[in-house]
Each structure stands twice: as structure tokens, then as C-alpha cells.
Amino acid sequence: xxxxxxxxxxxxxxxxxxxxxxxxxxxxxxxxxxxxxxxxxxxxxxxxxxxxxxxxxxxxxxxxxxxxxxxxxxxxxxxxxxxxxxxxxxxxxxxxxxxxxxxxxxxxxxxxxxxxxxxxxxxxxxxxxxxxxxxxxxxxxxxxxxxxxxxxxxxxxxxxxxxxxxxxxxxxxxxxxxxxxxxxxxxxxxxxxxxxxxxxxxxxxxxxxxxxxxxxxxxxxxxxxxxxxxxxxxxxxxxxxxxxxxxxxxxxxxxxxxxxxxxxxxxxxxxxxxxxxxxxxxxxxxxxxxxxxxxxxxxxxxxxxxxxxxxxxxxxxxxxxxxxxxxxxxxxxxxxxxxxxxxxxxxxxxxxxxxxxxxxxxxxxxxxxxxxxxxxxxxxxxxxxxxxxxxxxxxxxxxxxxxxxxxxxxxxxxxxxxxxxxxxxxxxxxxxxxxxxxxxxxxxxxxxxxxxxxxxxxxxxxxxxxxxxxxxxxxxxxxxxxxxxxxxxxxxxxxxxxxxxxxxxxxxxxxxxxxxxxxxxxxxxxxxxxxxxxxxxxxxxxxxxxxxxxxxxxxxxxxxxxxxxxxxxxxxxxxxxxxxxxxxxxxxxxx
Length: 591
Prior knowledge:
Blueprint: H1 15-34, H2 39-51, H3 55-69, H4 73-86, H5 89-94, H6 104-120, H7 124-127, H8 133-154, H9 158-161, H10 171-187, H11 191-202, H12 209-221, H13 225-238, H14 243-254, H15 264-281, H16 285-298, H17 303-316, H18 319-326, H19 336-349, H20 353-365, H21 369-382, H22 386-397, H23 403-415, H24 419-432, H25 437-450, H26 454-467, H27 472-484, H28 488-501, H29 506-518, H30 522-533, H31 539-551, H32 579-584
Helix pairs in contact: 1-2, 2-3, 3-4, 6-8, 6-16, 8-10, 8-15, 10-11, 10-15, 11-12, 12-13, 12-14, 13-14, 15-16, 16-17, 17-18, 17-19, 18-19, 19-20, 19-21, 20-21, 21-22, 22-23, 23-24, 25-26, 25-27, 26-27, 27-28, 28-29, 29-30, 30-31
């Protein structure tokens, strides 16, 4: 699938300038190696780096441009922005725009950055006037409102800290402001009011890990460990493999030390992560990264923020920065397993399977728990070590088979040549989750391939496409099912639709070529097969297509007589949700 680029559109120059940056930067890099560069060239390079999400490089370019030109105007403001996005908040606070040439957006972000730096330095009274939402403007008012109670608490204003923040129509402030108030009530020893807030946050069927952990931790600190276990079990009903909730429940059951309430800086950092996650959810990545960097200035050990930063850097193509973020959580921390999984997948996505597997094996061997074992199994499958993947999953499934694990093991068994075992797992998974489109597609496709349960199998694939009408991969499965059933005319119509959605997929183009051949459209078949060779097919497919170009297709085989490539393995990229993913997906009441 295509990776979406990370854009800082709200902070950058017009599109024409950005286009120039993309083409100019390689030459500028060479120029910087051989001699002086103009401030304009450095500015263009900085803009290009910022547009690509490489904020550290952008900051370096802008700083050099400022040295050449003088620390004035737009260069200074871009340098400030890049410093924020690179996480150098102390320097950014010193550079905050406030002159007559500064933009309103730059000044507003400057207020927020200076306020956070003051709180980090233990000077909350300097921060309070800067957090007035009218001064921060529309974009940053949520962050300012959520931070203000914590700044008041730092300044010793208990009454001011207990005022619940409100921004009209802002559900993020309503929801996470209530969480902050709960913690601050607890800090003020007003326990009944704190529990009222915690209960409100955890009502409903799926309140989210963050709120369950917050309420459970409060109950543990009050000595109510049985009640805490019940809260954790509520979350585990929805996510039985959630390693963080499992660890919390086991801690409460064992009577180990309760998690401490957050410090004032930690609470303020959490207040910034909330709008950061909200901005991620609506694809406003430049603001999301800003809030996460500010949160980490207040609490550098905030592991879920590091993982979110890593995810954004990975999406932007800044692999080095992503891996640095994923490497921050330390062994023993609740987020360590999730961090190691993301780090391993970073290497896998870059084509370095051996490095990915080494990381995954080390994490599993070091006692990373079930999450580490599942990550290892997923990476083994992604690297075509199917039998070993199935063995690892068997150790995880035990007496508590979850449909996701059964699905994964069923795929592994199938790819390892143990179809009977794979079919058993896939049917058991489908019994638990009868409407999952990927599972319906996989099992239905496999049955059609073997000439078994044809009517039921076709219905399953059709149902999968009905749920995903724009999925080129699933439409391809349906088209190839028609092909295997001998309905070549319908196969052509369906596969032509699949190619429209996934024009660059070599397998879909190959299938369409086969279907064209069967309906007598030989020239178009040859065109499709030749196109496959331009799409970097795997060696096996390349050899197959070259043979078809040379000799065409033989007589049509009866249904189930030939083994095809299986459907797209959506599980190949499966990653177990960690606390970061849970925060980003937290459903806020009213949204």
C-alpha cells in the first residue's frame, strides 16, 4: 500500500516553492559540501526538509540561513518552527516570534512554546498569562485550556487547578479536561469527587485503555485492588491480548505497589498528548507533532508520546528519527514490547527482514510476553517462515484461542502446506467473528481454489467485497474466483475494476491478462503480462509471466485442479495495538 507523506502544509510556503524545494535540495546538499551557499538556497533546502518531515535537518538549514542573512523575518520564523518539530523546545522558546514582522500563527505558537518551557523550568507563574485561550487563537486553544489547570497547580493555586477546562464545542477538552480534573481532585485529597470523574470517564462499553488504567490506578492507590481488577477486566473483555491491561490486572491481583499518581509535569504532559492524538486522528500531523514534542519537554519519559512520534516519523519516511523514538522506552516499561515491535517492523518495511527477525527474537527471548511472541510470529510469516510462525502461535493460543490468533495461525498453516490444520483454524476464527471481511475473503478464496464449498465460498468473497467496495485486493479476489469458476466474462469485468483501484499491483494485472486470454482478447492479455514485468514482480511471478508471453495459456484447467497464489495476506503487516494506538483510537463521547 502507498504510504502517505507527512506534510506541514499549514506552516509552509506556497506549493510552487515547495515543488522547487524538492528538486533543489539534492544539488544544495552537494553545494554545502563544496562551498558557501546563499541564504535563499539554504532556505529552500530547509523548506524541502520541513515538507518531508525531516525537522532536524530543516532546523540546521534554517539556522545556517539565518547566519548568512541575519536572524530576521521569515527565516527566523521557519527556524523556530523547525526547532519545535525537532523537539528542541528550549531553543525554540528563545526564538519565539514576537516582532512586528512575525505572523499571527507564529506568535500564537510562540506563546504556547514559551509557556511550556516556563512550566518545564519550574516557573509556572510566567506560563499562566500565556495560556489564555484568546491569545492562543483557534488552533492552540484546546492545548492551552488543558494545560492551564496544571500550571495553576504548579503555582500553588489549588482552587484554580480544580476548575474544569472548557472550550465551547470542543469534545477533546471536555473529555480530557475531566481526566485532568480527576487527577487534580485526587491530588487535593478530594477523593469522592475524583472517583465521580473517573467513573464518568469509564462508563459505557468501550471507554479506552487510558481511562481504565487511570481509574484502576486510582482504585489501587485507595487500597481497592479487587475493584481495580474489575476495571482492568472490563477492558480485557474487548482486548484480551492487551499487554498493558494484563500487566495492570496482574499487579493488582498480586498486591504489588500501586502506580503513583502523575506528578504535575507528568499530568501537564498528558494534557498535551490528548490534543496531539486528536490532531493525528484528523491528519493534522504538523500540530500533532508539535504537541507531542512539547509534552516530551515536560516529561521526557512519556513513552506513549515517543511511540506516536516514531509513527509519524516512520510515515514521513524519516526512518532514522523513527527508530530513535522507538528505541527510547526502556526494558521493563509497559510500552517496551510495543516499542520493540514497531522497531522491528521498521526494519521489515525497509526490506531488512533478518534485522527485523533478530529484534523480534531477542524481544521474545527476553520475556516480552505475549505481545512479543505475536510480533515474532507475524514477522516470521512476513518472511515466509510459515511453519515456525505457526509453532510460535501455538504456544500463545494455548487454552484461550482468540479469533485473530487463530486466523494468523490458519494462514501460517496454509502457507506451510498444512491446509487441513489451516482450514480448521480459519473456520474456528470465522465462528467467533463471522463478519470480518479479511477472514471471509481468505477462507472463501481458499475453498474456491480447491473446488470446495463453491456456492458458500463465492458468497463469502462477495460479502467481503460488499464491505470493502473500493478494495482493489478484494475485488481481485472476487474476479479471480469467477475465473476459477469458469465465468471468464464476469472475471474480466471484475478484474478491470480491481485494476482501476490498484493499477500498480503486478498480481492483479497478471490475473487480468489471464482473463483476457480466456475470452479471446489475446493482444490485451499480452499487454497486461508485459505490464506486469514493469511493476517489479517477485521472481516466481516474473518467470511465470515470461512463459505466458512466450507461449500463451494452455487449455483451461477444471476448477480446483491448480494451486494459485493465495489472497492478499492482510495479516502479514499485523501489529498488536499498544497503548499508543489505543489512545489515538480513543472514542470521545459525542464524536
